[in-house]
Specification:
This protein is of the alpha/beta class. It has a single domain (9-251), classed as TIM Barrel (Alpha-Beta Barrel), CATH 3.20.20.70. It is built from 14 helices and nine strands. The chain has helices at 20-28, 41-45, 49-52, 73-88, 92-95, 109-113, 124-137, 152-156, 159-170, 192-201, 215-223, 241-251, 261-278, 282-296, and strands at 9-11, 34-35, 39-40, 64-69, 97-104, 142-146, 174-178, 206-209, 228-231. Strands 1, 2, 3, 4, 5, 6, 7, 8 and 9 form a nine-stranded parallel sheet that branches. Helix 11 links the parallel strand 8 and strand 9 (228-231). It is globular, with a radius of gyration of 18 Å. The relative contact order is 0.16.
Length: 312
């Protein structure tokens, strides 16, 4: 199996959440790799300003991956060429990237209805074409994020194992697995048996994703044989979770002390300063202002941020 240089605690791509300020906080508190919000490959290559602005990896010290939603080989080639050109020109948006990822897991009906994301998993030839193109043209380490299929029928057909075989053959650097189907509710348990099948078949590192909320749930995923875990909702408003998980993995002891209003205020101040310096989008700023505000009030009225779309 290939060496795995990206650590074992990853921050997921999350729509309207994963901007530079938030990624910075998570990285400062122990995330080993972070991701931008999912980028639509067609919009990037067309030069859409709103899309290009999502590539905000301006701080070199923060390990950042970019995740593309793409279904056409030609579009992927152009997107990868843009990144390569940006690296050569030392354009800070692109030259600080560490990883390139393709999304085949986002459960959004909008994405599925246009035949992208998890709708592509069953299309073996298309997956071979896209993954081969990714491997051959990527200027950076690369991988994909998948679900077990579009629905229960596809899961029963074990299409996820065909995808792993392709990833093995083309030599991707990793595969992130959310061990549910795209049709499954966010609260449904993971299919641990399927995840174990994937780990057994893979000759490349597997990153476990889904329902990781603390040290024990992260450890369980790693005990299955995953090389890393990817966190999403549990990190929102709580960048310290990476430190807490890392401590648990090292000591076996749960960190139960609650954060103070002062700590939340300081975290918000750090976020706001980065957002101002680098001109973050209003949707990011407003969301984090709301979330940290709830936390600073002692979590009164706080709820799990279910409206977040974790792209996978």
């Amino acid at each position: 199996m290939k060496p795995f240089p990206f650590g074992r605690l990853w921050l997921s791509p999350m729509e309207s959440v994963s901007d530079l300020g938030f990624r910075s906080l998570c990285y400062q508190h122990g995330a080993s790799l972070t991701f931008t919000e999912m980028i639509r490959g067609s919009a990037l290559v067309q030069g859409n300003k709103a899309t290009v602005s999502l590539v905000d990896s301006y701080i070199p010290s923060i390990k950042t991956g970019i995740q593309f939603l793409v279904s056409k080989k030609e579009t992927l080639q152009k997107a990868l060429a843009m990144i390569d050109a940006g690296i050569q020109k030392k354009d800070g948006r692109f030259s600080n990237l560490s990883v390139i990822d393709l999304n085949f897991g986002c459960p959004s009906p909008e994405i599925i209805n246009i035949g992208q994301g998890p709708a592509l998993l069953k299309r073996t030839m298309k997956m071979k074409e896209l993954l081969t193109t990714l491997r051959n043209a990527s200027p950076l380490p690369c991988g994909i994020k998948i679900r077990l299929g579009l629905n229960e029928f596809e899961k029963q057909q074990k299409i996820y194992l065909r995808v792993i075989e392709i990833a093995n053959d083309v030599g991707l650097d990793y595969v992130t697995v959310h061990a549910k189907t795209a049709a499954d509710a966010s609260t449904m348990p993971l299919d641990e048996k399927a995840l174990q099948e994937i780990v057994a078949k893979a000759r490349i590192p597997i990153v476990g994703n889904g329902l990781i909320v603390d040290g024990p749930t992260a450890k369980r995923m790693l005990d299955f044989g995953c090389s890393a875990v990817m966190l999403a909702r549990a990190a929102v408003g709580n960048p310290w979770i990476f430190e807490k998980i890392d401590s648990y993995l090292k000591t076996g002891k749960l960190y139960t002390e609650k954060r103070t209003a002062t700590e939340y205020q300081e975290a918000w101040g750090t976020y706001a300063a980065i957002a101002k310096t680098y001109g973050t989008k209003k949707k990011f700023y407003d969301y984090h202002h709301w979330m940290f505000g709830l936390r600073m009030q002692g979590d009164k009225g706080y709820h799990s941020p279910s409206r977040i779309l974790e792209t996978g």
